[in-house]
Design a protein that fits this description.
mainly alpha; Citrate Synthase, domain 1; Cytochrome p450-Terp, domain 2; globular
Length: 385
C-alpha cells in the first residue's frame, strides 16, 4: 500500500507486533532468547525451579532479592490470609458460574475485588497487590467447585499456596509430587518480560489507572488463544492424537495442511524455551505417580515428530498442558491457572511502572487516503453504497 505524501518521511516503518522493540527498562525478568536463558531479578530459572517455592519467587519479584527466613514466612502468611474472598465476590462467582467461561468469570472477579480495597499511597500498595495473588487462586478453585455442584472448601492460611489450591480444588490432600509439580508450574510462569498480558497491565498502569484495572486488563489479554489459551489447545491436540503411534501421521497431516501446532515456536526464544525441560521432567514424574505414562509418551512423540520435520522450539505451553491435566485440572481451567501464576509478575510490573511512570503512548502510521472532499449528507449519491 502506498503512503500519503505527507506521511512518507514523517513516520518510520512500523515493526509488526512490536517485535524486538524495547519499550522500557525493568529489574524483574530477563529473557535471553539466543541462549535460552530466563532469569528473575538476575537469578537463573534453572536454580529457582530446582530449589524454591512460589512464595519465595514472589519475594524475589517484589523485593529484587532472595528473602530471609523471616521474610519468606511473612510472605507465606500474607498470601495464605489473602486466600479469603469477600462474601460479595463469592456471590458474584456464584451468579456467573455456568453462564460464561472461567476466564470471563475471573476477569469480572478481579474487577469486583477492586471495590473492596481502599485507595492507598504507593508505599502501601504492595500488600494490596499481594492480596490479589491469594484471591485469584481461591477464585479459580471456587469457580470449579461451584460449576461441579460441589461445596466450597475454605482456604487454610497455614498451608503453602500450591498445596492449599489443590486441596480447595479437589477436596482431598494432594501428594508431595503433586504439590511440587504445581509449585514448579507457578514458579516457571510467574514472569516473562514484556509478554502481551504484562505489557497491557503496564499500559493501563501507565495512565495511573488503579491496580485492579491494570490486572483486569492483563486477565483479558491472557484469555486469547495466542497467549494464555495456547496450552489448552496443546492439550486438545495431545488428547486427539491419543497414542504415541498416532503422532507421526497427525503431525504430517498438520504440516501438509499448514495447520498451526500449538505449543511450538516462540517470538523470543531461538534455541529452547528455558522452562520446557523442567516441565517435561515433572510431567514424567506426575504421570508415573498416576500410572498413566501414555499421556507423557504421546506428548514426547509429538515433540519428536514436530522437531523431525522442522527446526522449531517446544515452548512452555506444550508440557505445561499434560502436567496440569495429570494434576486433575480441567482444560478450560488451564488459562486461569496461568493467571494464578502470572499475577505475581503482573503485580510486580505494575508496582514498577508506578514507581517510574511515563504514559505509554506509541504512534500509528496512517496509510489511508488524505485530502478527501467532504460532501454534506443531502448531496451524497446513494449509488456509492
Amino acid at each position: 500500500m502506498s503512503l500519503p505524501k505527507d506521511n512518507k518521511d514523517s513516520i518510520p516503518e512500523p515493526t509488526k507486533g512490536l517485535e524486538g522493540i524495547v519499550a522500557a527498562d525493568t529489574n524483574l525478568s530477563s529473557v535471553n532468547g539466543e541462549k535460552g536463558i530466563l532469569r528473575y531479578c538476575g537469578f537463573n530459572i534453572d536454580d529457582l525451579a530446582l530449589d524454591t517455592t512460589f512464595e519465595e519467587t514472589i519475594c524475589i519479584l517484589y523485593d529484587y532479592e532472595l528473602p530471609t527466613e523471616d521474610r519468606l514466612s511473612e510472605m507465606t502468611k500474607n498470601i495464605g490470609e489473602a486466600r479469603v474472598l469477600p462474601d460479595e465476590v463469592v456471590e458474584v462467582i456464584t451468579k456467573l458460574v455456568g453462564k460464561t467461561s472461567p476466564m470471563s468469570t475471573l476477569r469480572t472477579v478481579v474487577s469486583a475485588l477492586g471495590h473492596y480495597e481502599k485507595n492507598v499511597p504507593l508505599s502501601e500498595l504492595a500488600p494490596k497487590a499481594l492480596r490479589l495473588v491469594g484471591q485469584i487462586a481461591t477464585a479459580v478453585a471456587m469457580i470449579h467447585r461451584l460449576r461441579e455442584g460441589l461445596p466450597i472448601i475454605k482456604a487454610d492460611p497455614e498451608r503453602g499456596h500450591a498445596e492449599d489450591f489443590l486441596r480447595m480444588l479437589h477436596g482431598d490432600e494432594p501428594s508431595k509430587i503433586q504439590i511440587n509439580a504445581l509449585n514448579l508450574y507457578l514458579i516457571l510462569l510467574a514472569d516473562h518480560g514484556f509478554n502481551a498480558s504484562t505489557f497491557s497491565a503496564r499500559v493501563t498502569a501507565g495512565t495511573l489507572a488503579n491496580l485492579h484495572s491494570a490486572i483486569t486488563s492483563a486477565v483479558g489479554t491472557l484469555s486469547g488463544p495466542l497467549h494464555g489459551g495456547a496450552n489448552e489447545k496443546a492439550m486438545d491436540m495431545i488428547l486427539e492424537v491419543g497414542k504415541p503411534e498416532n503422532a507421526s501421521e497427525y503431525i504430517e497431516n498438520a504440516f501438509n495442511n499448514k495447520q498451526k501446532i500449538m505449543g511450538f515456536g516462540h517470538r523470543v526464544y531461538k534455541v529452547d524455551d528455558a522452562r520446557r525441560i523442567h516441565l517435561k521432567n515433572m510431567t514424567e514424574l506426575v504421570c508415573k505417580e498416576n500410572g498413566n505414562m501414555e499421556i507423557y509418551r504421546t506428548a514426547e512423540e509429538i515433540e519428536r515428530q514436530v522437531r523431525k520435520r522442522k527446526s522449531i522450539i517446544t515452548n512452555v505451553d506444550f508440557y505445561s498442558a499434560p502436567l496440569l491435566y495429570e494434576l486433575g485440572i480441567p482444560t478450560d481451567l488451564f488459562t486461569p491457572l496461568f493467571a494464578m501464576s502470572r499475577v505475581a509478575g503482573w503485580t510486580a510490573h505494575v508496582l514498577e511502572q508506578y514507581k517510574n511512570n511515563r504514559l505509554i503512548r506509541p504512534r500509528a502510521r496512517y496509510v489511508g487516503q488524505i485530502d478527501r472532499t467532504f460532501t454534506p449528507l443531502q448531496h451524497r449519491s446513494e449509488k456509492r453504497f
